[in-house]
Amino acid sequence: MKIFPAVDILGGKCVQLVQGKRESATAYGDPFACATRWLDLGATALHVVNLDGAFGTASKNAGLIKDLIKKTGVEVELGGGIRSVDDARNWLETGVDRVIISTLATRDPECIRTLSREFGKERVMPGVDAKGGQIAVHGWQETAGDYIGWAKRFEELGAGSLLYTNVDVEGLQQGIRIAPVKQLIDAVGIPVVVAGGVSARSDVAALKAAGAFGAVLGSALYSGKIKLVDALEECR
What we know:
Largest sheet: 8 strands, parallel, barrel
């Protein structure tokens, strides 16, 4: 299993939010410095989110993120504010390994087929953000149907992997809920990366046992509740 330290960017700074709420942001400084810190500690991949894009300013942070991709040279999955096929194309052409498409994937599911054919399915990662068992869209403010049903549809359309985020526990640093993770992994045949609530080595162990492809470490990593070295060791 692979560990993806999160580098969430808002207003040019690396931040962590609670429950996706902008007003809850805690800033941790320069995104490149944060990324370098995790890579120096042994991470081999990054989970980058353009939060300004998610909040409606898609072009903001573009230069910074492109620079981050170029300077680190590691595997990067990127989400936040990808609202069109052209947005996704632009990012894929800058060198990100995978684009995470969430609201766009539910609004225009055929975009998955289009991007998979053009760039290869391994570079297309729909986001399955679940809130009370329903897929959450538009900044997690609305729900749009059963998350398992959507996940299966995304796979059928050519997704190469899925990012599952449990919105109910995201940012709370109180642990994961493993049951919905297992249900999703059992329902699809493509890799699933899990985000939301990963706060202890035991969470990483549970995800590994469930068959998750990867885990995103966010708030608990930055607060020191979970140590990257412990998570990486658990994966090995």
